[in-house]
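Hello,

Our lab assistant flagged a job as stuck in the queue for most of the afternoon. It eventually completed. Since we weren't sure the result was trustworthy after the delay, we are filing this so someone can double-check. Below is the sequence as submitted and the structure that was eventually returned. Let us know if re-running is recommended.
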Amino acid sequence: MDLPALIKNFEDQGLDEEDLVVLSGAHTLGFAQCRTFRPRIYSDTNIDPAFASHLRTICPQVGGDSRLAPLDPTPSSFDVKYFTDLVSKKGLLNSDQALLNGGETAELVSKYSGNHKEFSEDFAKSMIKMGDIMPLTGNRGEIRNNCRKVNSQY
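-- returned structure --
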């Protein structure tokens, strides 16, 4: 997803660009499957070449869809390495690296890359804000049993 689509997606939920950036910082934890980042490491130009080369050893051009790579170098620590990686063109997901394609979002990435305290405080505020979003229920939507599938496919 490109930056304008990400911004619109968040705005549609009553969230702003700061919420988009700080909540994306949750990608400082965990892993992603190869199928989610393959296009980035084989086609994108806004990626550190050595980083892309390393990822290609994990994720072949064909197959290996479920192979995992960490979202940042410290996948079990809630820190700002996610943001420092973006500044260095080492974002694993295209949607993460896209945050550097905009004025305000790029400024926020830069700010959080050097300020763990501010990131943590803003993250908490945005999580509360996101928690206030009402899920669609009844005829308007559903709460999924498995987040990857609508319940009728479960």
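-- support follow-up --
The delay was a queue issue, not a problem with the job. The result is valid. The mean pLDDT is 93. DSSP finds eight helices and two strands in the chain.
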